[in-house]
What does this fold into?
Amino acid sequence: MAMRRMRQNLYLHFQSNNTIMKYRLRKPDTDTLCSTCRNYSFWEGLSMTVIEAKHLTKRYDNGVTALENLDLSVERGEVFGFFGPNGAGKTTTVRLLNGTLSPTSGESKVLGLSSRDDEIRKKTATLTEMAAMYESMTVMENLGFFADLYEMDPADAGTRIRDLLERMDLGDKKDFKLGSFSTGMKKRVQLIRSLLHRPEVIFLDEPAAGLDPAAAQQVNDLIRKLAREEGTTIFMCTHNLYQADKVCDTFGFLKMGRLAAYGKKEDLIQSVIREKKILVKTDRQEHSITVDSYDAVNGHVRKIMDSGEHILEVLQVRPSLEEVYFHYLGRQS
It folds into this structure.
């Protein structure tokens, strides 16, 4: 009986490690809402495409095609990770989406507005890898200057600046000149600058570059908080697979101006699985086993147990995000 229960528990453990849980926020019955809430567009906006590109293409005058026929969409509150080697077209894509570059053909929309609409700049923010700020000014002077450019109310701007400085552990550095900061500290101030006016969409270029592990974790936490609690949509260009794996919901892989793959992490992993493998850890060794079907797992586990080994763990061997990256973009990238 104990042996049967042990086998059953192992099987359930194996199954639970590979169950994908999906939750859907259901719109409530309108009869339970007051007249104001019944007509409120919040419910319609919960699942909304915020960034959309259709056949987006950019060819320069020298004949170089930087981006060709890009189709993608990003939902409200998603963190989208955009990968590709240098020169793949990631920066061109961001410039087309935020309206600082005009496409050769195709179209893109952000928050329902054409990317060519100047109104987009009031509702979005872009943080480049080398965002310019004034090194001879203090942190507060810099952030106050940009708050004025965003036409923020002075009292609101002051509260917002102090809150963001505390979140990034820079509250005690507000009166220091930016030129005295390390690269990582400057990067945190630049991120704060991009968040001042509470943008609905943020385009980030390598947000954790130059940061130590503690500061990078703060940035990760802030990105997750913005997306989960405030519904901010984040489009993040990065080479940092470790960071992206922690914060991104959806991934896109760009190769030589073309979108090689795009989707949720689980779907991308499934797309590169060529054979089913399990790893059985025992008190003596590890067994790597290829199976025709996961239904056959119990049989393999039983044989190992019958040989006298004690099972410690049964795991499905799954490709990592790094393997997905190399599958679609190649080792040379």
Observations:
- The first strand starts at residue 49 and ends at 59.
- Residues 1-45 have pLDDT under 50 and may be disordered.
- The CA atoms of residues 61 and 104 lie 10 Å apart.
